[in-house]
Structures are given as structure tokens and as C-alpha cells.
């Protein structure tokens, strides 16, 4: 999932290019055809979501009917293909919940601190760089997190878990009488690192939208920076941050490969979080699918259906939280009210203005800041709150004095805490990059990029990932060819035509698709394309699964770019008698094209790192297959190479694993950098 907040309100549709009576039959026919096409794309999206749910239900029913165990409480071995069939989903759902809760408890406060540091403390130019660095965490594929987790974090977590057990062992969940390391707690730590950039990115953008007048009013009345944040920034962004946390929780629920690599699989209800063991729905699907037959596949699809419903409800909750943020302006919290004498909040803040100024908030005062006018104007253009202020100012005729020493100490301490959270968030990225680069450079060579692993044993040096590079590029390329036209058409419908129930439903389900677990996309293609229609497991099936994951990224980014096109361009075109469909295709879309390309490249970078759906619907081979449509030969990708070689005890195979990880990170980061450069190059107002 990319970290884009759900849209609380749908954009108002743009007007057409004149009345129907003023159009000739040609333009009118063109408008009707074009509007029909974009509306059909929107309806297709709804049908896709309905089909995903329908096929999951259909394929799960047979397995549920054949099950001879209680699906909610059974904790025995996963044996749906035995006679009689026995499997349970309750313990898997419990493990999914536990790991996700641990992740959100760790990630949420750190992410909020990171967002506050970047938006409120860091200098403007540095803040952009720091934001890009944090975003790199989101660009790291889950397979890399899993590799880092099993080979680096798990050994270190054994000692850390023992320390926690020694201190908190009297609490049952922290008991350490057993093997440590590959536990739900370790999996939760991995998930917290993965969801942190999502929460931080959304929270950062929300904090930057704090009304400037509230920030200036706090500074004008003598607030320290931390008091300004506590009284203006945090209350304004609390609902948006809540939505970001819920979205991060949904992302944690659906993570597959990283958890599957870290956990030591058991099927009981985990009550001791530090001990090895546990399982999740998504991880169990990835681990069991290779050996599953008809009933077993249906059982896995049934568990995927549960995951789909849970993530659907989580995204619905996030949307409801965001929607509630649209409250009338006169009912919103007012910063000035907290400084009025007699208010409870005023008692918690030492007044820094004269007693004669008790009525200052009701007067039209101005802050005489020491910041230079060009700096203030630049921050206004960037939409950032000023991270610094005058040490002394004036409100009306009343002079403000410096805050007291205890207040300055509290403000300095809070600022130091935000710096600490940023450093804490940066450590995993540094560790991952160091391990991947340091271990992967040994096998990197021209032959590694031009040879496959055909007839190469784990113990043999040599071979390469040429076959995986071909598979990665072909599958992501096919997904792009399918997702981009549909995504742009849906975005055009939402911005230019959308109104009524259809547009509301499309907007909602785009948000739902943003949080759709990748394993569910793979299960849908498996149940419909392979099992339902009898098609082969090949590269094209993988491209279809990646299309589902890429569609919402393209739609949301394209929608935002189309909304930024000035209405004056549309109106000028309509005034010249140009039909609406030509205005959109010749003026609106070309104007927004650089931003659309940026969104597409970010979508491509995301799907290139996907592992779980490819394991389900493509398979893995060691030889070169340049035809993604060929039979059921399968097709390797860089993530599946890593997943199929990381467990080898051989040094040569380990070198190839790290080298493949290094190459995957380089490709994805290059795509992200190119996307950033395009966005900067075409930024409005750039000299």
C-alpha cells in the first residue's frame, strides 16, 4: 500500500463545454461516447471489487462445508486435505490481530514524532530531504524486510526478549520459558517498521495544513513552540492522524512475506508473545499454498476472505474518521479561546502577557515577527507553519515577554524527543541498506545480470538473475499497460463527470483497494482466472494480480493531478466552442501528464517488489522464460528468487540472495527518484 489518505470528499465535477443545444451532432456524439467510456471504467472498478468478493465466497464455501472441525476454535494442525478435513481460522486471526496491535503500538508514537519533527522543527529545505528519506522506508519491498528480519533482527531479538522477560516476566504475555526470537513480538516489530512511513507521511501532510492564523495566534500570545504544537497542530490534525493510524493498522493486517519469514509457525492461540510461535492469515496462505490440493486451496481462500472482510472494515473505519473531520467552521476548536481568562486550558499555560491585556484575544492584534518577509512568503507558498518565531513580539499595544524557564525546558525537551523519534525511525533503513549493500556486492558482476540459475546448484558459485529481471520487467510492464488506461479513465470520471451514488461508491472502493492485501489479489486471480476459467499459472496471471494492486495508486494520483489543472484552461477551451471530450484529452490530461507519470512510476515501483501474489499464481523456475503467456511454465521475479534462496545454508546461494535484494532495491529506488525529479521539474511556479 502507498501511504495516501482516503479522500473524505469527492471533487465537484467540472462543467461541460456549452449546452446540448449549442453543440453540433459531431461534438455531441463525441461527448456522449467519451462520457460513456469513462463511466464504463468506473463501473468496471465496482464490478471488479464485487467479483473479488464473490469468487472468494464461492471458492471458500466448498472447503467450509467439508471442514469437520470448528473453524473458529480449532488449534490442531492445518489439514484441510486430510480425511476428514480439519482446519481452523480463529487462531490465525488471533495471531494477525496480535502482531498488528504490537506494530501499531510501536509505530504510531514514533511516526507522529517523525511527522512533527519534519513539519514543525526541521528547516524548510532540510524537511524535504528528510521526508524523502523516510519515504524510502515505504519503498523497501516486504521481502527485503523479511530477509533483514530473519537474518539480522531475530538473532538480536533473542537477547532483547530475554531482558523484557526478566523485567516483565510476572505478566503472562511476557513469560520467556521457551525458545525466543521468532515470535509474534518480533513479527510486530518488523510490521511496525513497515507501517511507520505510511503513518508518518500522512500525518506530516496533515500537520502542514494547520491554519496559519492559529499558529500565529499562539506565537503572538507567547506560546513556546511545543505549546503551539499542543494547542494548534495536534488538535487540528487529530482526526487525520487517527485515520492514518487505522490505515497503518490495515496495512499490518495484510502483510504476508515478511511475517512468514520471521515467525516459527504454530496453530495455537498465542498467549506468550516473546516465545517463538504463532501464525497469521496471510503468512499461512503463503506457507501452505504450495502443498494444498482442492479442499486445501478452498480453505486458504476462506481464510483470505476473512482477511478481505477485516481490511474492508478497517478501511471503512478510516474513511469514517476522515469524513468526520469535515465539521462546520464555527464549530471547530478555536485557538484563541484557550487563552481567555477562566478557561481550564489557560490554567495549564503560564500567561506571558500583561494582566492589562486580558481582552487581547478579542482585539485585532498583530505579531511583529523578526522573520524576514521573503522567508514568510516562501513558507506561505510551501504551506508550512513557521518553525521559528520572534523571541519578543507585540499584540496590539501589549508587549510579550520571554516564556519562563520551565516552559522553555519543556519545549526543548519535546523538540529533542521528536529528533530522537526521527533517528529511531532512520536506524532500520540504515541497517537494511548496510546489510544489503555489504552482503550483496560480493556476487554483483556483469555475469550476474546476464545469466540465469539454470543447472546451478546452491553450493555452486556463478549464475545470475537474468531470468528474474525479465520476469520482473515483463509482469510489471503488463500490469502497467492494463492499469494505466483504466486508472486514468476512472480518475477523469471522478474529476470531470462524477456525481451521485456511482461516484461516491467509486471513491469509496478506490480507498478500499488502497488497503487491499496483496495476498487477497493473488487469491482472487487464483480462484477466478486459474481455478475458475482453467487458465495457466504464468507471468500473465501475475500481471493481472499486480494490476489490481496498481490500479488504486494510478487512480488516486491521477485524480489529484487532474484536480490541480486550473479551471481557467477548461473555461477558455469551452469558450472557443471546443467539446468537453476534446478539452479533456487535448488540454486537461496533457497538462496533468507529468504528475500522472509520477504516480504511475510510484505504482510500478510498488508492484515490482510484490512477492505473495506471484508465489500463488506464477510459481518459480530457475531458467529463462521470455514469454509470460507460455503454458504453465512459471516465471521468476527478483522477489521470488530471494524467497526461494534465502533459507539455503550454502555461502554461494546466500551471496546470490543478497545480490538479488541489492538489485531490487536499486531498481525501486531509481524509479522513486525519477518520479521525484519529474514532480520537481514540473512543479508549478518553478523558475
Automatic annotation (TrEMBL):
It is found in: Cell membrane. Its main location: membrane. The keyword Aminoacyl-tRNA synthetase does not apply. Pfam families: BPD_transp_1 (PF00528). The chain crosses the membrane at residues 37-58, 92-118, 130-154, 184-202, 240-263, 299-318, 413-437, 476-495, 502-531, 537-555, 587-608, 658-679. Residues 1-25, 364-387 are annotated as: Disordered. InterPro entries: MetI-like, MetI-like_sf, Phosphate_PstA, Phosphate_PstC, Phosphate_Transport_Permease. Residues 93-318, 469-675 form the ABC transmembrane type-1 domain. Part of the binding-protein-dependent transport system for phosphate; probably responsible for the translocation of the substrate across the membrane. This is Phosphate ABC transporter permease subunit PstC. It comes from Catenulispora pinistramenti.
Amino acid at each position: 500500500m502507498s501511504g495516501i489518505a482516503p479522500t473524505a470528499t469527492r471533487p465537484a465535477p467540472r462543467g461541460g463545454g456549452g449546452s446540448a443545444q449549442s453543440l453540433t451532432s459531431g461534438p455531441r456524439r463525441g461527448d456522449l461516447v467519451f462520457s460513456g467510456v469513462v463511466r464504463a471504467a468506473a463501473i468496471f472498478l465496482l464490478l471488479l471489487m464485487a467479483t473479488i468478493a464473490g469468487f472468494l465466497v464461492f471458492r471458500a464455501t466448498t472447503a467450509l462445508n467439508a471442514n469437520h472441525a470448528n473453524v473458529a476454535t480449532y488449534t490442531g494442525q492445518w489439514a484441510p486435505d486430510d480425511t476428514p478435513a480439519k482446519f481452523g481460522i480463529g487462531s490465525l486471526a488471533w495471531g494477525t490481530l496480535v502482531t498488528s496491535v504490537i506494530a501499531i503500538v510501536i509505530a504510531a508514537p514514533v511516526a507522529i514524532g517523525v511527522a512533527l519533527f519534519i513539519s514543525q522543527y526541521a528547516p524548510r529545505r532540510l524537511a524535504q530531504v528528510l521526508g524523502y528519506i523516510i519515504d524510502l522506508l515505504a519503498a523497501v519491498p516486504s521481502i527485503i524486510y523479511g530477509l533483514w528480519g530473519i537474518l539480522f533482527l531475530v538473532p538480536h531479538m533473542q537477547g532483547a526478549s530475554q531482558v523484557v522477560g526478566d523485567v516483565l516476566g510476572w505478566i503472562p504475555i511476557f513469560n520467556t520459558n521457551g525458545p525466543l526470537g521468532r515470535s509474534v513480538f518480533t513479527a510486530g516489530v518488523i510490521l511496525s517498521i513497515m507501517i511507520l512511513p505510511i503513518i508518518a507521511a500522512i500525518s506530516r501532510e496533515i500537520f502542514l495544513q494547520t491554519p496559519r492564523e492559529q499558529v500565529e495566534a499562539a506565537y503572538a500570545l507567547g506560546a513556546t513552540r511545543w505549546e503551539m504544537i499542543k494547542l494548534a497542530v495536534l488538535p487540528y490534525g487529530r482526526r487525520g492522524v487517527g485515520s492514518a493510524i487505522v490505515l497503518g493498522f490495515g496495512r499490518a493486517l495484510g502483510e504476508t512475506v515478511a511475517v512468514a519469514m520471521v515467525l516459527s509457525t504454530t496453530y495455537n492461540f498465542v498467549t506468550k508473545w516473546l516465545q517463538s510461535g504463532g501464525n497469521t492469515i496471510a503468512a499461512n496462505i503463503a506457507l501452505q499454498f504450495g502443498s494444498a490440493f482442492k479442499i486445501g486451496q478452498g480453505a486458504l481462500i476462506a481464510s483470505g476472505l476473512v482477511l478481505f472482510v477485516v481490511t474492508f472494515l478497517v478501511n471503512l473505519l478510516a474513511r469514517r474518521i476522515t469524513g468526520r473531520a469535515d465539521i462546520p467552521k464555527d464549530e471547530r476548536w478555536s485557538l484563541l479561546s484557550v487563552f481567555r481568562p477562566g478557561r481550564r486550558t489557560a490554567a495549564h499555560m503560564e500567561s506571558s502577557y500583561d494582566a492589562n491585556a486580558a481582552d487581547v484575544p478579542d482585539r485585532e492584534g498583530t505579531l511583529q515577527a523578526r522573520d524576514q518577509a521573503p522567508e514568510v512568503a516562501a513558507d506561505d507558498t510551501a504551506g508550512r507553519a513557521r518553525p521559528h518565531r520572534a523571541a519578543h513580539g507585540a499584540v496590539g499595544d501589549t508587549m510579550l515577554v520571554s516564556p519562563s524557564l520551565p516552559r522553555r525546558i519543556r519545549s526543548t525537551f519535546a523538540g529533542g524527543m521528536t529528533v530522537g523519534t526521527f533517528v529511531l525511525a532512520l536506524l532500520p533503513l540504515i541497517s537494511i541498506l548496510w546489510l544489503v549493500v555489504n552482503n550483496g556486492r560480493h556476487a554483483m558482476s556483469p555475469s550476474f545480470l546476464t545469466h540465469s540459475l539454470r543447472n546451478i546448484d546452491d553450493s555452486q558459485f556463478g549464475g545470475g538473475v537474468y531470468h528474474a529481471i525479465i520476469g520482473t520487467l515483463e509482469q510489471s510492464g503488463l500490469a502497467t499497460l492494463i492499469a494505466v488506461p483504466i486508472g486514468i479513465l476512472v480518475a477523469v470520471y471522478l474529476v470531470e463527470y462524477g456525481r451521485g451514488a456511482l461516484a461516491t461508491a467509486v471513491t469509496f472502493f478506490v480507498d478500499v483497494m488502497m488497503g487491499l492485501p496483496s495476498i487477497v489479489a493473488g487469491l482472487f486471480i487464483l480462484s477466478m482466472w486459474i481455478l475458475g476459467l482453467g487458465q495457466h499459472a504464468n507471468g500473465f496471471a501475475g500481471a493481472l494480480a499486480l494490476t489490481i494492486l496498481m490500479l488504486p495508486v494510478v487512480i488516486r494520483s491521477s485524480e489529484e493531478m487532474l484536480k490541480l489543472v486550473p479551471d481557467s484552461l477548461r473555461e477558455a477551451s469551452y469558450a472557443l466552442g471546443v467539446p468537453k471530450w476534446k478539452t479533456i484529452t487535448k488540454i486537461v490530461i496533457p497538462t496533468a501528464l507529468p504528475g500522472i507519470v509520477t504516480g504511475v512510476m510510484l505504482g510500478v515501483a510498488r508492484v515490482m517488489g510484490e512477492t505473495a501474489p506471484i508465489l500463488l499464481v506464477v510459481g518459480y523456475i530457475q531458467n529463462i522464460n521470455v514469454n509470460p503467456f507460455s503454458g504453465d511454465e512459471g516465471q521468476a521475479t527478483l522477489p521470488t528468487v530471494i524467497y526461494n534462496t534465502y533459507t539455503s545454508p550454502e555461502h554461494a546461494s546466500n551471496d546470490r540472495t543478497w545480490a538479488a535484494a541489492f538489485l531490487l532495491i536499486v531498481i525501486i529506488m531509481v524509479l522513486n527518484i525519477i518520479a521525484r525529479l519529474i514532480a520537481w521539474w514540473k512543479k508549478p511556479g518553478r523558475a
